[in-house]
Write a structure and sequence with these properties.
The complex is a heterotrimer.
Chain A: H1 2-17, E1 23-27, H2 33-40, E2 47-54, E3 58-59, E4 62-71, H3 73-90, E5 95-101, E6 103-106, E7 110-118, H4 121-138, E8 141-147, E9 151-153
Helix pairs in contact in A: 3-4
Chain B: E1 15-19, H1 48-60, E2 65-69, H2 79-87, E3 94-99, H3 108-113, E4 118-122, H4 128-135, H5 140-152, E5 156-163, H6 172-182, E6 185-190, H7 208-218, E7 222-224, E8 235-239, E9 245-249, E10 262-265, E11 270-272, E12 281-282, H8 283-288, H9 293-305, H10 311-316, H11 327-330
Parallel strand pairs in B: 1-2, 1-10, 2-3, 3-4, 4-5, 5-6, 6-9
Antiparallel strand pairs in B: 7-8, 8-9, 10-11, 11-12
Helix pairs in contact in B: 1-2, 1-9
Chain C: E1 8-15, H1 17-23, E2 27-33, E3 36-37, H2 38-48, E4 60-63, E5 66-67, E6 73-74, E7 80-83
Parallel strand pairs in C: 1-7
Antiparallel strand pairs in C: 1-2, 3-6, 4-5, 4-7
Classes of the chains: A alpha+beta, B alpha/beta, C alpha+beta.
């Protein structure tokens, strides 16, 4: 009886604090899809949705060779955690990962990976989309396009 | 786990004090000049990622307990996030916070759920106007409430009181009575020459012996508690009627350097093996130049071997004088 | 009411992205009387760094990592940053 009670309490407690265990990070290191997949592993998850944002060779100001990302890191991570918590209240999520890379990135390199695992596919798709859309408008990270001719900061959204 | 942080006196480092900011929202007369607004640049201050990395490396080298200090640590934004990350580091058994309590009330729950185990709250007077005079802030009520709230939240709470002759030595008995009423241990700290205000004088030091005299004449006999942590800075005493415990940190009159198990990281990235070490080792430069974990480990091990004897050697040569170090940049 | 307010305060302000580049520093220090508001501070910043004047409505101010309104009172123990429009992701 008591072990069962303890197990139930542990599950409840774990559910409540589960959000604190998720990998949310702003880093200068190269992003590893392997690490993300490891974090999302869950036997009870039937679906896994991954979004990867990559640097592409065309930007608003011409042919892009490099993108420079700058962040107010500690605030950015906090905002990402807020978004992650919102996603958790909206959808039944098993595991979640959000890592943003900053610094100089070349064309083809990955700037952000968002990963969501859930029992069924609908939640995984929706949560993943929600998170990336919100990261783009609510997190203190700035992108500078470096082309052959110029270096320009991308237009963006003022934080609230 | 076998510790690799050993000095030439055979002392082993098990506890890490991390100062997360040099800023403070008080101006205690023995710590920081009232008009001081000179702070480290944000570029000089270690970011959370750096603090976590160094903490992990030190945990691997044998550190088991971490204490978050400042300045006033709650002044550092999002400190709960740092604590959450530190709580995940393997081998770290306990995380404590030392605070003046002013910003604690609203954040007790968040701090609890971040994994913090204990809170040491600094309080030097129960008299409202004296509190204001000593700290520059009308904050006595707030601090008392935060002590209460921290206790209710389930934290292990202790009070730290710096006793200065002619300032607040007449309140020693009242503090002990507070300990007796509430069951919260009050630790009396002798006035150390780590004052940013340059006011330290040896005649301002109110000794542990004098404190015990006051307690014994005002309340009753005290005697050391039988089970004590030898390396802990505070020697804990209980009253003979069994009610209340008080501690003494007699750094000046009965220094305990030979049992020291503490090392420090300042907010601007210096590693100190002793409170009286100045300037310490610039571990931040290593970190920011791209040193590997192994290189940083080796560096820290080496620094540890050079840990000086401590305040005992300064006392021996009569070398105590004001402002030997700036406490607000190191942390208590 | 804030009571940790000195007579004169040296407020450090962190700058990012284009604002950082315009000024040439990651952090600036502005001397103000004790206990001023964000809008007072921003005014002083624009006076000291006129190159920012054309961006005066193109940033928000954060205090201790929270975006805040102009009437917030600040002191040097607060962490202040000017945040231009974001474009992460």
């Amino acid at each position: 009886m008591i072990p069962l009670l303890l197990l139930v309490m542990k599950l409840l407690f774990c559910r409540q604090s589960a959000g604190d265990e998720f990998l949310i990070r702003v880093t200068t290191n190269h992003l590893s899809l392997q690490e993300v997949m490891r974090e999302l592993e869950d036997d009870s998850a039937g679906a896994l949705s991954i979004f990867m944002g990559n640097v592409r060779n065309r930007g608003r100001y011409g042919n892009v060779s490099e993108i420079y990302y700058e962040a107010y890191s500690e605030m950015a991570e906090e905002k990402m955690r807020e978004i992650e918590n919102e996603a958790q209240t909206k959808w039944a999520i098993k595991k979640l990962v959000a890592i943003h890379r900053i610094g100089n990135l070349k064309v083809g390199e990955t700037s952000i990976i968002i990963g969501v695992s859930s029992e069924h596919r609908n939640e995984a798709f929706e949560a993943c989309k929600y998170i990336i859309n919100n990261v783009k408008t609510r997190v203190p990270i700035w992108k500078k396009e470096i082309t052959d001719e110029s270096q320009k900061w991308t237009d963006g959204i003022l934080l609230e | 786990m076998k510790s690799k942080l050993i000095d030439n006196y055979g002392r082993i480092a098990k506890k890490l004090r991390i100062s997360v900011t040099d800023k403070c929202n008080m101006r205690c007369g023995y710590c920081m000049p009232k008009n001081n607004t000179k702070w480290f640049d944000s570029t000089e201050v270690l970011c959370f990622e750096e603090i976590i990395r160094l903490s992990s490396i030190l945990a691997n080298l044998g550190v088991e307990k971490i204490r978050i200090t400042g300045g006033e640590p709650l002044v550092r934004p999002l400190i709960e996030n740092l604590i959450k990350s530190i709580a995940k580091i393997p081998h770290i058994k306990n995380i404590g916070l030392t605070t003046n309590g002013l910003l604690l009330l609203e954040r007790v729950e968040k701090l609890k759920s971040s994994g913090l185990n204990s809170v040491n709250i600094s309080l030097d007077s129960f008299k409202e106007d004296r509190f204001k005079m000593m700290t520059g802030i009308n904050g006595l009520g707030k601090v008392i409430s935060s002590i209460q709230k921290a206790r209710e939240a389930g934290f292990d709470v202790k009070i730290n009181t710096v006793v200065i002759r002619g300032w607040n030595d007449d309140e020693v008995v009242e503090f002990a009575n507070f300990a007796r009423r509430t069951g919260i241990t009050v630790r009396f700290i002798e006035f150390m020459p780590l004052d940013g205000t340059g006011i330290w004088r040896s005649d301002l030091v109110f000794s542990k012996k004098e404190m015990i005299e006051k307690l014994e004449s005002g309340i009753g006999e005290v005697s050391p508690v039988l089970e004590q942590e030898i390396s802990a800075p505070a020697k804990v005493y209980s009253f003979s009627d069994g009610i209340g415990t008080v501690g003494f940190i007699p750094s000046v009159t009965e220094p305990f350097c030979n049992q020291c198990d503490r090392i420090r990281l300042t907010s601007d990235g210096r590693f100190l093996t002793c409170l009286f070490e100045n300037p310490g080792y610039d571990i931040k430069s290593y970190l920011r130049r791209g040193a590997s974990d192994e290189e940083l480990s080796q560096y820290l091990i080496q620094c540890m071997t050079m840990k000086q004897e401590g305040i005992v050697s300064l006392i021996r040569i009569n070398g105590l004088k004001p402002k030997l170090n700036l406490m607000h940049t190191i942390g208590g | 009411m804030r009571s940790d307010i000195p007579d004169n305060d040296k407020i450090k302000v962190r700058l990012f992205a284009n604002l950082r580049e315009l000024v040439g520093e990651r952090e600036i220090t502005i001397t103000v009387p004790g206990g001023v508001t964000v809008s007072y501070l921003n005014n002083e910043i624009l006076n000291k760094y006129p190159q920012l004047k054309s961006f005066s409505n193109k940033f928000v101010t954060s205090v201790n990592c929270k975006v805040t309104t102009d009437d917030t009172v600040i002191t040097s123990s607060d962490e202040i940053a000017l945040l231009p429009p974001v474009s992460g992701g």
